Amino acid sequence: MGTKKQRLQEKYEGVVAPALAKEFGIKNKMAIPKLTKIVVNVGIGEIAKSKESMETARRDIAVVTGQMPSVRPAKISVATFNVRSGMPVGLAVTLRGEKMYAFLDKLISIVLPRFRDFRGVSGRSFDVSGNYTLGIYEHTVFPEIDLTKAHALKGFEITIVGTAGNPKKGKKLLELLGMPFEKNST
C-alpha cells in the first residue's frame, strides 16, 4: 500500500478525534472511538448457478470496493430455497486502513447523494456496540459500474465497524466524518 493518506483519514486524525475526545471527556487517545473495518456483503441468489455471472459479479464488487471479494458458502441446507450446505450464497469484502477510508469517502461524497430524493441515512441502524449497517438496493449508483454491462446483483449490505462502544458515540463519529443522517432520526 502507498503512504498517501486518504482525505477522510486525515480529517479523522486532525478534526474528528480531538472533537470526540473533548465532547465525551476522553483523556486517553487510545480510547477515542475510531473505525476498524468496513464489511460489504452481497447476496448472490440465482447468480451462483452460472460461473460466468458469478465472475462478473465478483469483478463488479472488486471494482467498487478496490478488493476482490471472497465467496461465502451456505452453512446449512434450506430445502424451501433450494440451498444446500456448501453452496455459494454470497460475496463478502472486509476493508481496512486506506481502502476502508477511500470506500467510506466515496460512499459519503459520491454514492449516497446520487440516490433520488435522498434526505439522509437512517440514524436507527446502530447496534449496541455503535456499529452501523446500511443497505443499498441498487449497486449501479457506484460510479465505477458500467450500466450497459451491469449485472443483476440484488444489493449491498455495508457494515461500518468501530470502537465506539455504544450507538451515541458511533453516531457522533460518523456524523463528524460526514455521514448524512436524516434530520429527524434519533
TrEMBL record:
GO cellular component, one term: ribosome
Large ribosomal subunit protein uL5 C-terminal domain mapped to chain residues: 88-181
SUPFAM superfamilies: RL5-like
Origin superkingdom: Bacteria
Gene Ontology molecular function, alphabetical: rRNA binding; structural constituent of ribosome; tRNA binding
Domain Large ribosomal subunit protein uL5 N-terminal residue range list: 28-84
Keywords, sorted A to Z: Ribonucleoprotein, Ribosomal protein, RNA-binding, rRNA-binding, tRNA-binding
GO biological process: translation
Job description of the protein: This is 1 of the proteins that bind and probably mediate the attachment of the 5S RNA into the large ribosomal subunit, where it forms part of the central protuberance. In the 70S ribosome it contacts protein S13 of the 30S subunit (bridge B1b), connecting the 2 subunits; this bridge is implicated in subunit movement. Contacts the P site tRNA; the 5S rRNA and some of its associated proteins might help stabilize positioning of ribosome-bound tRNAs.
Record PANTHER family: 60S RIBOSOMAL PROTEIN L11-RELATED
Subunit structure comment from the entry: Part of the 50S ribosomal subunit; part of the 5S rRNA/L5/L18/L25 subcomplex. Contacts the 5S rRNA and the P site tRNA. Forms a bridge to the 30S subunit in the 70S ribosome.
Protein family per UniProt: Belongs to the universal ribosomal protein uL5 family.
NCBIfam families, A to Z: PRK00010.1 (NF000585)
Name recorded for this polypeptide: Large ribosomal subunit protein uL5
Protein's organism: Candidatus Woesebacteria bacterium RBG_16_42_24
